[in-house]
Amino acid sequence: MPRRARLELPGTPLHVTQRGVNRAATFVDDDDCHHYMHLLHNFRREEGVQIHAYVLMGNHVHLLLSAPACGGISRLMRLVGQCHAQAFNKRHGRSGTLWQGRFKSCLVESERYLLTVYRYIELNPVRAAMVAAAEAYRWSSVHANLALRIDPVVTPHASFLALGRDDATRAMAYRQWLEQGVSEDDLATIRDHLQQERALGDLRFQLMVEKALNRPVACKPIGRPRVTTG
Question: What whole-number distance in Å separates Cα of residue 24 and Cα of residue 99?
């Protein structure tokens, strides 16, 4: 049975996550992270993909990406994943699959949900109790988005740029946004849409995507259907 085609629309952001097989490590040390970021930087230029937010965790990665054409993000992830796996196996004396199947992804509405996904991604190390503040974690786009350092991999999305007229103003507004944290409802919503690979957005956005792709894009209820009698 062929795999279901990924939900993609040119220019519409895609939240991507990829995990290590059996939750095994995909980044053991800084050299692994450096290599992955090097690959990401080089291949995203080849494919014309913009990276708005990212975080490299010990056994998975989160990325917020957009591309001018369908297929570019999938090619980027395939190239980065293959090259990183080969180098990782060689460095650490292992063999076999590194990643757990193909990556998960969901489309993200720019107006309401995009900055929530920014925050979800960059607060990952805080939720994992690895650091007390997002900027204390090295392998994250938060440093660029808080104007703490220049990161050549990161391209701000238009919704992020709308936070202020200059870098300092945007950084202040975004810091306040980060400090609010991610609500339990938003956590559940983001995770459900990633797991089911659906379109994260309001009804208007979902109807637009459904019409464009001619397929259902809303999340299905979790659990067994309710049995009614009458």
Answer: 9
